[in-house]
Design a protein that fits this description.
The structure holds 2 protein chains of 2 kinds. Chain A is an alpha/beta fold. Chain A folds into 4 domains: 88 residues, Alpha-helical ferredoxin (Fumarate Reductase Iron-sulfur Protein, Chain B, domain 2, Orthogonal Bundle), CATH 1.10.1060.10; 59 residues, no CATH class; 133 residues, Rossmann fold (3-Layer(aba) Sandwich), CATH 3.40.50.1860; 115 residues, 3-Layer(aba) Sandwich (Rossmann fold). In chain A, 53% of the residues lie in helices and 8% in strands. In chain A, the strands form 2 sheets. Chain A has a 5-stranded mixed β-sheet with strand order 1-3-2-4-5. A 4-stranded parallel β-sheet of chain A has the order 7-6-8-9, with helices on both faces. In chain A, helix 24 crosses helix 25. The longest helix of chain A is centred in the C-terminal third of the chain and has 18 residues. By secondary structure, chain B is α+β, with helices and mostly antiparallel strands. Chain B has 2 domains: 216 residues, 2-Layer Sandwich (Uridine Diphospho-n-acetylenolpyruvylglucosamine Reductase, domain 3), CATH 3.30.465; 190 residues, Vanillyl-alcohol Oxidase, Chain A, domain 3. In chain B, the strands form 3 sheets. Chain B has a 7-stranded antiparallel β-sheet with strand order 13-10-12-11-15-16-14, with helices on both faces. In chain B, helix 13 runs antiparallel to helix 14. Chain B is globular. Chain B starts with a helix and ends in a 29-residue tail after the last helix. Classes of the chains: A alpha/beta, B alpha+beta. Chains A and B meet through helix 3 and helix 4 of A and helix 2 and helix 12 of B.
């Protein structure tokens, strides 16, 4: 019979499952959809190549070399390969494990490691710390420095990553977490009670978007409960290879939302939704599966939720706009949700949906990738925006804060006309005042 | 390990970014999609043009390296694995479409162009390139030509060979060749072009290909039939062909495949049926109507248990998509999928199905069978786990017995995957020593040094330790 699964040259703790790697039959179907392979034409930067590297490490044929680490971080974790894979291999997930292994075999230098630990283990788990950390950025904008920097073109002289960081941040308002009521009652005939999972990026960077989400849910007949004790979903931790903190956050969020006794847990952040749905896997060895199963069964992306429960359209006003839709990787590939967002868009009277080519191709944001791999990220973004431009649509719609930031930045940089809207902002325009 | 001077020399000639020699790169240029078979090159080189390729080949020759050409490495017989080490020569960076000649209805492209890109470029001009191997979204034209790839449309439209008009490239010794042209008729000399098509990279390295394009069909109709007994489905296929109806597609799935597809896609296929046939007729609307009626009549005559015509394009597409997910669905079941391409004369299909069933029971295996029934080209697919050596041995015994039967019926050991490494033993059984000797002489005349893709096709070229040659111990 089959031999026991070896960890080989992986560190036994948080090693990718050997079975999950072995499932790759090397058919190469993933090569057609991998953004990094499309750019490099280098097999090791393809999903099939990355799986083969992981397999070689697991079988003791290769050490966990710097090249393996680099490939795990060059992977966008866009999960397009999971959609394309006939045999159900999830290379993005295998690479998340490899990123965690990278911390063991190639720990960052002391200052970089301290910064990383501070961000992942202290700041992200604490909403208040995060909110404070954004204060300088808000001050910078309030005092008009951003306006001055941009209009004088000083940002052109900043080093690449800083310039992009400066350029990508939209105008910041007060974080929504501090302002949103714990309970927003349902309007009209009540249809249920939902817990709103307010993601960090949404609260901090796109408070107005999430305000629309809550407003829509209430208008659609749901009590909206938004717990202020909500923690980061853990996605950044998985992406950076800190599985331990991710597990800690997951347990807190599960307890928090199960205690609310809501019918559904809704989020308007594709990244959060994907992470929440993967809690079961994350906590595979440690936790109470009945509880996690109950939690998971309630999680919905906002589009998924609206499409499933049926949108009450009788009060909607027409929105005369042509739009094109960019599918967030964590929605289409991470959660398999391609149809529901389109159903929501088409349900809005007056809106014309114009499909772009490769709508499910990554925009190049991919968490911190857009700042770490500036050039690669920019090239992926340009491919995307070319397709957006070709539609001639009035607006570009998406459903995830990461994509939103990246696309809005790209649109500004290239002087394109399309404003970037979250799908709930589009729907919000149709809602009665 | 190659000397650093050799690497530097290659980089200088081909471009620094086109030469790889780190272990992490070499590891991933050792495989294709064939289970259990991997090689390990000493260097991987990806020229961007003919001059770069010529230079790489020259360095390979000077250093006495084996050279193994490689497209997208989606092959299913090990043809592009650098089995003896040496140089993996990638063609994927020579991927330009050079010309679409609308007067002669041809398209000329570099070997690394992806099949679907070629198809789309032709379609943009209102033309049609029919060969559609399962890996068309990633496979390269050069790889398709080298393996003479087939696909779902093979029955009516033929395979890659039927569309290749001209080829050019290099022999191992650096000789440049141009074989064929845009002429519809051409009987000048031996047909080098036809020798090179399907030569699996053992005779020459193909750098450019001119293919023939045709008019796309104006109309199309899709039928679906379910059978309780797969042998009845086999009968239906033989009768359709005997009635001189040539559908564009005539695909079969057995019970195991139906259930895997249903588990995976959940599109409402009946789990209790023994087989389904997917039939697509295309062409002029009048012919399509006539052929669809003819097929329907035959299905009724053999008493198919359910017969359906797709109501609209949407439904037809959904049915075709279900067939395309067959391998996917089967592959999910277990870690290792051993996919063969047994092919028999179409009149012997029912017998072949019975034999597959008998052997499956004899060896106690899980086998899903699907494939291009209209071509007699089946993909019996064993789902196993390569770590379970005992079961894998049974899988190989299963296929060995099956090929014995297939050959006794006048079939072939490969319909569309090629011989590569995986089927060397079976090829000897099919051709015998005499046939193999003729092939050996052909190989010698193209590649006297034996430097190009060594270890493939010919059993006596030996194998390196640890690689098992299925069927090799027999006969």
């Amino acid at each position: 019979m089959a031999e026991p699964s070896p960890a080989g040259h992986f560190h036994p703790e948080d090693a990718p499952g050997y079975e999950s790697i072995l499932q790759c039959m090397r058919c190469g179907f993933c090569l057609a959809v991998c953004p990094t392979y499309a750019l490099t034409n280098r097999e090791r930067s393809s999903p099939r190549g990355r799986a083969a590297l992981a397999r070689a490490v697991a079988e003791g044929k290769l050490e966990f070399t710097p090249a393996v680490r680099d490939e795990s971080f060059l992977c966008l974790d866009c999960k397009a390969c999971s959609t394309a894979c006939p045999s159900g291999v999830r290379v993005g997930t295998i690479m998340e494990f490899c990123r965690s292994q990278a911390q063991v075999f190639h720990p960052p230098s002391l200052p970089a490691g301290m910064l990383r630990d501070f961000i992942l283990k202290r700041m992200l788990p604490s909403p208040a710390l995060m909110e404070n950390s954004m204060l300088p950025a808000r001050l910078y904008q309030r005092l008009g420095i951003q306006w001055a920097v941009r209009s004088l073109g000083i940002n052109r002289f900043l080093p690449g990553a800083l310039a992009k960081m400066e350029g990508i941040l939209p105008k910041l308002a007060t974080p929504l977490r501090l302002e949103i009521p714990e309970l927003i009652p349902a309007l009209g005939k009540k249809r249920g009670r939902v817990g709103f999972f307010l993601g960090c990026a949404m609260s901090l960077v796109f408070p107005e978007v999430s305000r629309q989400t809550a407003r829509i849910l209430s208008q659609q007949g749901f009590d909206v409960v938004t717990p202020k004790e909500v923690k980061c979903c853990g996605a950044p931790h998985l992406a950076e290879g800190d599985r331990e903190t991710a597990r800690r956050l997951a347990r807190i969020n599960i307890d928090l939302f199960l205690a609310l006794e809501v019918d559904f847990i809704v989020t308007d952040c594709a990244g959060c939704g994907c992470a929440l749905k993967e809690y079961e896997e994350l906590l595979e060895e440690t936790a109470d599966h009945e509880r996690i199963g109950r939690f998971k069964a309630k999680v919905r992306d906002i589009s998924e939720f609206l499409a499933e429960t049926g949108i009450r359209t009788e009060d909607l006003r027409p929105v005369p706009l042509s739009v094109t839709y960019h599918e967030p990787c964590h929605l289409v590939h991470g959660q398999g949700l391609s149809v529901p967002p389109r159903q929501v868009i088409r349900a809005i009277p007056g809106v014309e949906l114009r499909e772009m080519k490769e709508s499910n191709w990554c925009c190049g944001m991919a968490g911190s990738f857009a700042l770490k791999e500036l050039e690669t990220s920019r090239r992926i973004l340009e491919r995307k925006l070319g397709h957006v431009r070709a539609t001639g649509a009035d607006a570009l719609v998406t459903a995830n804060p990461g994509c939103h930031l990246q696309l809005a930045w790209g649109v500004r940089e290239l002087g394109m006309k399309q404003p970037v809207l979250h799908i709930v902002e589009l729907l919000g325009k149709a809602l009665p005042q | 390990m190659l000397k650093k001077t050799v690497i530097d020399h290659l980089r200088q000639k081909v471009g620094a970014g086109n030469v790889y020699h780190e272990k992490e790169d070499l590891l991933v240029y050792g495989y294709d999609a064939t289970p259990e078979i991997t090689g390990f090159p000493d260097v991987a080189v990806f020229p961007e043009n003919r001059e770069g390729l010529r230079a790489a080949l020259e360095v390979g020759r000077e250093e006495g390296l084996a050279v193994t050409p490689r497209g997208a490495a989606t092959g299913l017989s090990g043809g592009s694995t650098p089995f003896r080490g040496g140089m993996a020569l990638g063609l994927t960076r020579m991927n330009r479409i050079l010309e679409i000649d609308e007067e002669n209805l041809t398209l000329t492209a570099e070997a690394g162009v992806i099949t679907i890109d070629l198809f789309n470029a032709a379609a943009a001009k209102g033309l049609f390139y029919p060969p559609d191997p399962g890996s068309q979204n990633v496979s390269t034209l050069g790889g398709n030509v080298a393996e003479n790839a087939g696909g779902l449309r093979g029955l009516k439209y033929g395979v890659t060979r039927n569309y290749v008009m001209a080829l050019s490239g290099f022999l191992y010794d650096g000789t440049e060749f141009h074989a064929g042209n845009k002429c519809v008729k051409d009987v000048a000399g031996y047909s080098l072009r036809d020798l090179l098509v399907g030569s699996e990279g053992t005779l020459g390295i193909i750098t450019e290909v001119t293919v023939r394009l045709i008019n796309p069909p104006q109309d199309k109709r899709t039928l679906l039939a379910y059978f309780k007994d797969i042998r009845t489905a086999g009968d239906a296929v033989s009768k359709i062909i005997a009635a001189r109806i040539i559908p564009a597609t005539l695909e079969i799935m057995d019970r195991t495949t139906i259930n895997c597809v249903e588990d995976y896609a959940g599109i409402g296929l009946p789990r209790d049926m023994g087989a389904l046939l997917l039939i697509e007729v295309d062409g002029h609307p009048a012919v399509v109507a006539e052929e669809a009626a003819g097929v329907q009549k035959i299905l009724e005559e053999v008493r198919a248990d359910v017969i359906r015509q797709a109501a609209n394009t949407q439904e037809a597409l959904q049915l075709a998509a279900a067939r395309r997910t067959a391998l996917s669905a089967v592959a999910r079941v277990s870690p290792t999928t051993i996919l063969e391409d047994t092919t028999v004369p179409r009149s012997r299909l029912a017998e072949t199905f019975a034999e597959i069933e008998r052997l499956r029971e004899k060896y106690g295996l899980r086998v899903a069978t699907f494939g291009h029934a209209g071509d007699g080209n089946l993909h019996p697919t064993a789902v196993t786990d390569e770590r379970n050596r005992e079961e894998v041995a049974r899988v190989h015994a299963f296929f060995s017995d099956l090929y014995e039967k297939v050959l006794s019926m006048g079939g072939t050991v490969s319909g569309e995957h090629g011989i590569g490494i995986a089927k060397k033993g079976y090829l000897l059984r099919q051709f015998g020593e005499g046939g193999m000797e003729v092939m050996r002489r052909i190989k010698k005349s193209f590649d006297p040094d034996g430097g190009l893709n060594p270890g493939k096709i010919f059993l006596d070229e030996g194998v390196s330790a640890g690689v098992k040659i299925p069927g090799g111990t027999h006969g």
